[in-house]
Design goal:
The chain has 2 domains: about 200 residues, Rossmann fold; about 35 residues, no CATH class. The two termini are about 35 Å apart. Helix 4 runs parallel beside helix 5. A 7-stranded parallel beta sheet has the order 3-2-1-4-5-6-7, sandwiched between helices. The mean pLDDT is about 95. It is globular and about 50 Å long. It is α/β, with parallel strands linked by helices. The longest helix has 29 residues. Bound molecules: nicotinamide-adenine-dinucleotide. The site of nicotinamide-adenine-dinucleotide has 27 residues, from helix 1, helix 4 and helix 6.
Amino acid sequence: MTDTRTALVTGAARGIGAATARRLARDGYRVAVLDLSEEAAEGTAAAIREDGGDAVSVGADVADEDAVTTAVAHVAQTLGPPTVLVNNAGILRDNLLFRMTTADFDDVLRVHLRGAFLMSRAVQAHQVEARWGRVVNLSSTSALGNRGQANYAAAKAGMQGFTKTLAIELGPFGVTVNAVAPGFIETEMTRAVAERVGVPFEELLAAEAKAVPVRRVGQPDDIAAAVSFFASEEASFVSGQVLYVAGGPRG
Ligand SMILES: NC(=O)c1ccc[n+]([C@@H]2O[C@H](COP(=O)([O-])OP(=O)(O)OC[C@H]3O[C@@H](n4cnc5c(N)ncnc54)[C@H](O)[C@@H]3O)[C@@H](O)[C@H]2O)c1
């Protein structure tokens, strides 16, 4: 990279987002760490700065249009125009269809899909101006269908259509758009699943690992590595793709 570029990672206070923010900082990007609260995001930003990187923390709800506009403008001013965007923020509201509330459905689609839409629309202005950019969206193996996740599966399948469409629209401006679809990753999100179903987390991890061809669950750094590839200069001819990172061929 000739000039240092700015990457913005949503939901980066912890888990996959935090690992991705740290990885992109090691790759040489300035990194905006965005999460619901600036205080939560600051932990990751501080860790990046301690490692010698350049990072700011930003508090915003990705599904709040005004907050997104303000956040992206703030990042552009303090770190430089964001040209790499990782749409990672996400929530779960699992339930079987007959028990799923309308709020469970709306909340999940709101954060994943509306959030990715608002963030991408705000960031594309900077990418188009720079005639260069990368968008990486977080999908999931759940896009293929998963019991108890009608809302989340719809959102994560939606992320794939969103990815392919942005790849077509933004390609002429030097912007690639791809998705990473993780399998089971050890994070607070999956810890919460264990709590909800009343299984000790270690037991859930062991059971999940048995079902994965490489016989382990994923770690946040496994996903960060895939995002790093899509964000790289070398990946400039790869666009509109969905990479399943799941320890096996699911997808
Ligand atoms: N953990 C897995 O097994 C797994 C598998 C497939 C896909 N994913 C996806 O990867 C992404 C990260 O997952 P994770 O396991 O690290 O989750 P996590 O729950 O550990 O972290 C998600 C982060 O997103 C933030 N967030 C939630 N709503 C937000 C909003 N409206 N605005 C801004 N930030 C918000 C949370 O505060 C949190 O810091 C999600 O999109 C998730 O759906 C995770």
